[in-house]
Amino acid sequence: MGLCNKAPDYYQQFYKMISLTIKIKTVHADLAGKPAGTYIVFVTVVKKDPKSNWLVTELGSGG
After folding, report:
1. E strand or H helix at 42
2. Could you please report the per-residue DSSP string of 17-40?
3. What is the pLDDT of residues 23-58, one digit of tens each?
4. Quick one: which of 54, 37, 53, 36 has its CA closest to 45?
5. Could you give the CA distance from residue 41 to residue 16 in angstroms, rounded to a whole number?
6. What pLDDT was estimated at residue 58?
7. Taking the model in full, what pTM does it have?
8. 24/45 Cα distance (integer angstroms)
9. How many Å apart are CA 20 and CA 12, to the nearest integer?
10. Lateral strand order in the sheet of 55-62
11. What are the backbone angles phi and psi of residue 10, rounded to the nearest 5°?
């Protein structure tokens, strides 16, 4: 989801919205046994008004 006019109506109530896609590349397997590779994390944060704190509304991952 980006900052476009096609965002769901839910997001119209917010002052600001930022959608981030973070790409993480690992070179070793982690403690949980996930193999090395590239992982993608999606985060959407919003601000209700100029004085409010940022709030995470969506968090997801893909690989």
Report:
1. strand 37-47
2. EEEEEEEEEESS--TT-PPSEEEE
3. 989 888 878 887 888 889 999 999 988 899 999 988
4. 54
5. 20
6. 87
7. 0.59
8. 19
9. 18
10. 16-26, 37-47, 55-62
11. -50, -40
